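Retry 2 of 3 after timeout on previous attempt. Resubmitting structure tokens to design endpoint.
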């Protein structure tokens, strides 16, 4: 893969935040350094980085896709109202792979866990 300053800046920006930003947020912040960058370039690079396993793409029902620069196994809470994505600091639940493996004829190598509900901010606003 050919080196790209813009792709490197995108990856650096994404890895510097725990906010799970949208492509639009990343685009607006990258424009400060690269005023001529297009939203299409941001989307193409996010897709490439996701395909390469350099970042995680998180799809939320009804909200924009979010992106995570932390590719280590961890879990997310997704608010069903505002679509905010938050990391959950919780004990490891890798035993779920053993349970799933008992139900599967293939070889399970990884898993992703998302928990859904209403975040504290949305509850406060109600």
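Retry 2 succeeded. Sequence:
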């Amino acid at each position: 893969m050919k080196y790209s300053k813009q792709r490197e800046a995108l990856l650096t920006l994404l890895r510097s935040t725990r906010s799970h930003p949208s492509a639009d947020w990343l685009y607006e912040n990258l424009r400060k350094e690269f005023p001529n960058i297009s939203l299409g370039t941001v989307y193409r690079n996010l897709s490439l980085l996701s395909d390469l396993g350099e970042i995680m793409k998180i799809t939320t029902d009804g909200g924009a896709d979010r992106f995570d620069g932390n590719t280590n196994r961890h879990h997310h809470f997704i608010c069903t109202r505002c679509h905010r994505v938050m990391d959950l600091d919780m004990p490891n639940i890798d035993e779920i792979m053993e349970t799933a493996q008992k139900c599967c004829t293939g070889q399970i190598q990884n898993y992703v866990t998302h928990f859904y509900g209403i975040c504290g901010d949305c509850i406060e606003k109600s």
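Attempt log closed. Helices lie at 5-15, 23-30, 39-51, 95-101, 120-125.
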